[in-house]
Structure of RING-type domain-containing protein:
Amino acid sequence: MGQRMTRRQVDEGLELYAQKNYDAAIKKWTTALPKMKDNRLRFSTLGHLASASRDRGRNKDYLVHAVQQIDIAHELDDNVLRAQAYLNLSRANEMLADYFKAVSYSRLAIQYSQTTDSIQGYALLVMADSYIGLCNFPKVLECLDKSLYISHESEDHLMEIQVLNTMGKVFLALKDFPKALAFQRRAHELALSNAVYAGEQNANISAKFVRLTKLKLATPLRLMGDLQGATKCVEEAMRSASSLGDRPVQAKCLVCLGDIQRSQNNNEVACKKYEAAIQMLQDMNDRYSSTLAMLGLVKTLLAPDTHTQMASEILATALSTATSMGNKLMQARCHLLNERILTSDNQLEDARQAFEIAQRLYREIDLICTICKEPMGMYPDQIQILTCTHIFHERCILNLLQRWTYEAQSCPKCNKSVLHSRSYIALSLF
Ligand SMILES: [Zn+2]
Ligand SMILES: [Zn+2]
């Protein structure tokens, strides 16, 4: 009798969750869990708790639930459950910016998954996001290419939206803003059309993707000078996130609002937005986004040239977080900001050294265009990614390819043909 009751509690939790009564749902599941004797029911309830924690930004809880799922999967010696649990474990580690662990666990998820389930595609997405964290862009593209193929084969639009989002993130990191915007627009359009066709049952999840993709439009719009468009996107995403208590999106909206205010020289307002965002993101243990917010705050503090001391202190924290994550691109950006501080303080020799460290980091992550020998992603520029996943300045590679014969069009780095190889990513935008 007790087991029937716990099963009912789990279902009641699901109903509460669908009614957007999240905390009550989490409470139901948490109370029911210790009374459960059936391991499979425990596993699925932990899965509900894992998704709920993830949606609320409770990333450490997410990790704990995933670890408990792994134990059950091993106890039952069930590979289907193992694949699901490893996928959760990899995503939790990615969100906590433990990228090496995230990559290993997504490998395990793929290893235990069946060829027909969508877990492979989602595990590849986690891997791609983790490789962005580690600034290994060719690996990001390799994973996204496979994931996009799976999303097309299985007609999984939510997977496709995430591939496009991550692709936008790649171009944003490389400072090719028009391409970043093009990918985020595609993702948003797909999220909108998906929401139209999604049934009542999936209304929550499709609304979440509409909100998320709208937010992701804001940064490339702002960087291309459309502050009004960027503000509109953030405000709409913020409204939707606030009404549902979607804390991860709320925090990221605050960072974007800080960026927009900074672009308009409203430095005091910008600082307040960044500070609120950093607080929330640190609560969620989101080291990646909190470092981005810290860099925004440093730029704001440097604008009037009066708060250099405070800017230096925050920059030191940002640099140590970027280093602990293994993110060399963010480290390079910290050193470039430090160069600015040192130059304004007339410490020219130290400034030159900071610039050299930044350049060395760009070389280490292979972000030097082998054609012109200049770094990519340091200044806004158009970037072209070849089907072999090698990256160049667009003008450099186009110049080179135009000079060659049709047959000889191959990548200057790996010699693979540009024309005859297949890449879903390379073809997805144009
Ligand atoms: Zn170049
Ligand atoms: Zn190549």
In short: The pocket of zinc ion (ligand 2) is lined by residues 386, 388, 390, 411, 413-414, 416 (CB under 6 Å).
